[in-house]
Amino acid sequence: MSWLARLEVDAEIVHEEGISDDVYAWHKMLWQCYPGEPERTRVDIGFLTRIDQLEGAYRFWVMAKQKPERPHWCTAESFKINEISPSFLSHRYYAFDLRANPVKALVQHGPDGKPALQPNGKWKRGKRVPLVKEDELKAWLAQKGQVRAVVCRKGEKKIEIPGGFKIVEEKPLEISRLAINHFRKKEQTAYHGGIQFRGVLEVTDTARFTESYFAGIGGAKGFGFGLLLLAPTKL
């Protein structure tokens, strides 16, 4: 059982809560949907969020395995919640809306200008930078739909990342310009680059797609990225 909640809040109320344009602070504010459970991690309840800035207001989305409660700063009329039934994920085609954080890791170079290597012979990865070129963004999204093997951080063990879908190329794929999302964490200021994708996808493996849906797409999930909004459709 999982839940999807939508909260629409006036900008004045958000600012009264002491939240400015800080995506991590917004994410922490949404933890108020789970009062009395500060020790549980996002992974424990499959907690995904999304923040849409509207004219004079904000729309917040929360998806989680545990039913969220309405926080005090959201009126009852502005709090909508639905249980995600298994049948919802049984369709073949979906119109989708995804705000994601597509990045690539730059290769580190040694004093000789050549790529630096790890003890296992693989290239050392350096700073992560946002993807901005359209072809790179399309390739990134297509890759997220594939089942692939990656090296686990703690060793050489290979793990599979769920995919289960592909983008329908016959339908338009809208890709927004890069949006800079600032945040402050542990007294340091940084940012994530956000890209919004809108299009139509085809489910190629329902079980894998279900895993992808609940896990979120891409990284920076603690900053409002990765939640896949879906609407069943037909070609």
Can you tag this structure with a few keywords?
235 residues; alpha+beta; Alpha-Beta Plaits; 2 domains; six-stranded antiparallel sheet; 14 strands; globular
Could you explain the architecture of this structure?
The protein is α+β, with helices and mostly antiparallel strands and 235 residues long. The protein folds into 2 domains: 2-84, Alpha-Beta Plaits (2-Layer Sandwich), CATH 3.30.70.1200; 93-232, Alpha-Beta Plaits (2-Layer Sandwich), CATH 3.30.70.1210. Helices cover 17% and strands 38% of the residues. It contains 5 helices and 14 strands. The protein has helices at 11-16, 23-30, 42-45, 134-144, 206-215, and strands at 2-10, 48-54, 57-64, 79-84, 93-100, 103-107, 125-130, 148-151, 158-161, 165-167, 174-175, 179-185, 188-203, 228-232. The strands form 4 sheets. Strands 5, 10, 11, 12, 13 and 14 form a 6-stranded antiparallel beta sheet that branches. The longest helix is centred in the middle third of the chain and has 11 residues, at 134-144. It is globular, with a radius of gyration of 19 Å. The chain starts with a strand and ends with a strand. The model has no long low-confidence stretch (mean pLDDT 82).
